[in-house]
Amino acid sequence: AQSVTQPDIHITVSEGASLELRCNYSYGATPYLFWYVQSPGQGLQLLLKYFSGDTLVQGIKGFEAEFKRSQSSFNLRKPSVHWSDAAEYFCAVDPTGTASKLTFGTGTRLQVTL
Amino acid sequence: NAGVTQTPKFQVLKTGQSMTLQCAQDMNHNSMYWYRQDPGMGLRLIYYSASEGTTDKGEVPNGYNVSRLNKREFSLRLESAAPSQTSVYFCASSVDRAYHEQYFGPGTRLTVT
Predict the structure, then answer these.
(1) pLDDT tens digits, one per residue of B6-39
(2) B101 vs A106: CB contact, 8 Å cut-off?
(3) Distance CA B3, CA B103 (A)
(4) Which chain B residue is nearest to residue A88, measuring alpha carbons?
(5) Can you say whether residue B16 is alpha, beta or left, with left for phi > 0 and alpha for psi between -120 and 50 degrees?
(6) Of A74, A73, A77, A64, nearest in space to A110 by CA
(7) Cβ neighbours around A10 below 10 Å, total
(8) pLDDT for res B97
(9) What tens digit of pLDDT does each residue of A79-88 get?
(10) Measured between alpha carbons, how far is A40 from A23 in angstroms, rounded to an integer?
């Protein structure tokens, strides 16, 4: 079955430290890939997306993600985390590009310590 | 621009009651979506409307109905609420179905007792 896995439910990092959030997917072909962020009490906001081309994509707020076909992964990274990055992060995949099949992972909650 | 707005923000229902969640967008988007978010489950698509006048089922449509009233508005109706429908409901919109990011509303927290 098609699926999206975010293996880390909760991650704590110190402000200024680097961050990597993991996302793995299980689809027959390369899907369309997204990372969304949800701040407490808010809706989701798109951080970045990958459709094709360069496998390293840049997003908003200093985030980037790298698509690795061989590992079926699309991990989110940030070189230096700020306290305001504390939120829940969702990886999402869409195998068809039509948004009708957009599937979200279960999320990773990021806590930032000062 | 207000973006995507949802009403109400909070609602408590008794089992068997009905209600309609309202969603409106002012971005002239063609496509609109309803999701539910449950702890440990991520977001799951309930229904979507690719364009005005069309609606289609998503992953978890049972117990819900939708109406795409016009291009701006997309409502979600619970005809007979059940405790299993306790959740946070998000409406989203996008330019169209393909390739474009979805913009989310702030959500409606629904509790069914």
Answers:
(1) 999 999 999 999 999 999 999 999 999 999 999 8
(2) no
(3) 8
(4) B42
(5) left
(6) A77
(7) 10
(8) 65
(9) 999 999 999 9
(10) 21
